[in-house]
Write a structure and sequence with these properties.
About 70% of the residues lie in helices and about 5% in strands. It is mainly alpha-helical and about 375 residues long. The relative contact order is 0.15.
Amino acid sequence: MTSSYVRFPLTVLVLLAHLNFAGRGFAIHGEWYGLNMPLWGQWIIDFFGHSIRGIVVQIFMLLSGYFFFYRKTFTTEVYKKNIKKRFRTLVVPYLLWNTLAILCIAIRFLPIFSNILPGMDQVKVNLTPLAFLYTYFDFFHEDALFVYPDTPVRDTAMPIDAPLWYLRELMVLCLISPLFYWLIKKLKAWSLLIWAIVSFVITPCFFTGWLYMQFVLSFYFALGAYYSLNGKNFVTELRKYPWTIWVWLAIVVADNFSIDMPWRNFLYYAGGPFGCVAGIIITAWLIEKKGYRLPEIILNSSFFVYALHMLFMWDLCKALFVLLHLNDNTWVLIAFYFFGVILTYAICVAIYSLMGKVCPGFRRLLTGGR
């Protein structure tokens, strides 16, 4: 099983999560849609947009930890070589995509766009060096480059191209990878138990938000590193636990029926380890037993889609909603939700293909050579 076949469905789940408007609705020219959606409609959208997306980052982190140590004797030279490679595959794309995101928002201030995108005149612009730095790390900070009047209060720091927060966390884990190597070599499987206790039991007692998420993700990075450093095929190993599929599905159903309940966050994080294992088992089964195959361009463009979609998806979908004169009917909103994701993905792949013909060098920079 190649990692590309895992990344594609995970990227689709990312788009479904980022277009999820269940319980929140969305506004177009001051008019709100989807706020009065019945609970069964919210369940359908939230099942894909929240409940099952809890496996996405976990699997990405497991793969990252696995391939960081893949088939290598971990020495100082190997560490330096890996960090140099990650600079090209993580840091360069991170800076380029966030710079593009700044330009995308800046363009909206032009009269031709500001007239059809209401509210741009209420956006505060901070043209200071510190504001630019915040935009690459915490776009929602009150001193960031663009401050919207309805900026949400968040306990997690997101860059302006929000999905790339994952790359930022991965950079940190790669830098401290010798710590994982030392723990795994010295403590073997016990290192995973210790790290799980630290990440899931101790850390939540002292930290929330960004720092808590960093510890949680570090466990999955460590899990991938453990399999790699011990010469184990993680797919073969995880297949030993098929019961995790049923546990995960039970948690997903419980999570889906817990909208607005105080324990929902607990279910979301509790389902992570089981969903991580279940997702890999199911994907491997689809490839080997059902002949799950996809065109190369779909497989190769996953990271490009992941990085690009949030720069235009909501604007595209809202424009489409207006142009098609859609209404607030529940079935219409559900169809709009899935069609918006499919259309966004198709446009991203088309841009990826076009750039491969027009400016392949720049595309390689944007994707880190992927």
